[in-house]
Specification:
With 472 residues, the chain is of the alpha/beta class. The chain contains 18 helices and seven strands. The longest helix is centred in the C-terminal third of the chain and has 35 residues, at 437-471.
Length: 472
């Protein structure tokens, strides 16, 4: 895995080159830019061989260059893995862009395994290197900065107590049955899924009047079922892990299944606890104590005051975009922090990246506080464009916000909304289908990387066109 590609050109590749088949302008600009920026491929290579004792031994895997280029193409085109594999296999230009050439294209599962080796830190370092390279090419001067926050959803259904309990019962039961197929167990484990499903459906279909009289009794029964399934599953896991003399491979599979069952038991106990507190004890459970999915336990509940979306489930994302349209910073936030806490860190980050503060700093009213305005002035920002939040503006603030420069700055700020729309609709960042917080961060980072590379390709194309016009 991660070996360097064979430099020898096949007859098929030589024939394609002879026929003049080349990349289109955007992909060629991105390919040339990746080749020009050093250490990008090396960084991916270190991730691919991470934890391997002899990375040069065994069957040939995807090279680091192929993994990086395929991952970027995957987000640029917003394809799924099967379509990515089929498109690369069928397209001469995509084979060229991804460095496969005339080599066989692996199955979509190989792409998935290779992508899953890449860490969030690697994607962050690559994004920083790309932005720094754009600065060296004078595509970006760092004079303007606009910021905003948005929400990227996790792949969960709308959480209710009854559906979370039902998820717990059915998933643990399914995993225990898989374990029983592997080893012979003496501990009985009755299947309670049918009764749990019925109780869940009965609760979800209750009218408001029925809830006042019947809800607690139904929930008590569903909680007993869930608690019983969790306790028996823990006993089954203890018995399975105590079995000796298993085949080594079979023993590994049994251990993995037991760890998975115990993980879901832990999540299930949290669901049982919060349901008992909320429904039976009529206690108001704090958001930080709630679990919204047993499959994506890292999911946060986000309330942003929008009428069309009262609540969202996922993670809040902070974005900072430069004047040339490059996303210079992205951060996956924990919980639902206020926007006003991001001004000072974003200014420090911009100074570290560009060596100076932006002349213009623009954000929406959520970023406004008197301290943030003062911080912008202390950092050397010439024009702060953050609308006042609340009433009672001073005459000086009123005059500042009515000035042509402030209004122009707010029009510039609105451009980040378009960037977020492109990330959602064009790069598929609206909903993360990957599992786990680490893969979530990689998913966001690669979408940002693909968007930055597309923007750099457009800027390079404009520069080339201007030079041609001048030469003519």
């Amino acid at each position: 895995m991660g070996r360097l590609p064979d430099p020898q050109v096949s007859f098929a590749e030589a024939e394609l080159r002879a026929q003049g088949i080349v990349l289109d302008g955007t992909l060629k600009a991105i390919s040339d830019f990746i080749n020009a920026v050093k250490d990008l491929v090396d960084r991916v290579y270190r991730d691919l061989v991470r934890g391997l004792k002899r990375p040069s031994a065994g069957r040939d895997g995807m090279t680091a260059s192929r993994v990086l280029r395929s991952f970027i193409l995957y987000r640029i085109k917003n394809w799924d893995l099967r379509e990515l594999r089929e498109r690369i296999a069928d397209g001469c230009t995509l084979r060229t862009f991804t460095d496969f050439g005339a080599s066989p294209i692996p199955c979509h599962q190989t792409f998935n395994r290779s992508f899953n080796r890449i860490t969030p830190e690697t994607i962050r370092v690559i994004n920083d290197a790309v932005v720094q390279a754009a600065v060296k090419l004078r595509l970006e001067d760092g004079n303007k900065l606009r910021v905003d926050t948005t929400v990227v959803q996790t792949d969960i259904h709308f959480p209710t107590d009854c559906t979370l309990l039902w998820d717990t019962v059915r998933v643990i039961t399914r995993l225990v049955h898989r374990l029983q197929e592997r080893v012979s167990l003496h501990t009985p484990f009755p299947d309670r899924t049918r009764r749990a499903r019925r109780r869940s459906h009965e609760i979800s279909r209750m009218t408001r009047t029925q809830r006042t009289r019947q809800q607690k009794a139904k929930y008590k029964d569903l909680l007993r079922i869930a608690q019983d399934v969790i306790e028996k599953a823990r006993v089954v896991c203890v018995e399975a892990q105590a079995i000796k003399g298993l085949d080594p491979l079979e023993g590994i599979i049994v251990d993995v299944l037991c760890r998975e069952i115990l993980d879901f038991c832990g999540h299930g106990e949290r669901v049982v606890s919060q349901t008992r507190r909320r429904v039976l004890n009529e206690e108001k459970v704090p958001v930080e104590d709630k679990l919204f999915s047993i499959f994506e336990p890292h999911t946060d509940l986000i309330v942003r005051g929008k009428t069309d979306k009262p609540v969202e489930f996922g993670h809040k994302l902070f974005l900072a975009e430069s004047g040339a349209g490059l996303i210079s910073e992205y951060r996956v936030l924990e919980g639902n922090p206020s926007d006003e806490g991001h001004v000072e860190p974003s200014l420090a980050r911009h100074r570290a990246l560009f060596g100076k503060a932006p002349r213009l700093y623009a954000g929406d009213r959520g970023f406004y506080t008197p301290d943030n305005v003062a911080q912008c002035g202390a950092e050397g920002v010439k024009l702060e464009c953050i609308p006042f939040r609340g009433g009672g503006r001073s005459p000086e603030r009123e005059a500042h916000q009515k000035s042509p420069a402030f209004k122009k700055g707010q029009r510039f700020r609105a451009g980040i909304e378009g960037t977020i729309s492109v990330l959602f609709r064009g790069r598929g960042m609206k909903r993360c289908m990957s599992e786990g917080l680490e893969r979530f961060e990689v998913f966001v980072g690669v979408a940002v990387l693909a968007n930055n590379l597309m923007r750099i390709a457009a800027l390079l194309s404009k520069r080339s066109a201007r030079r041609k016009r001048k030469a003519a």
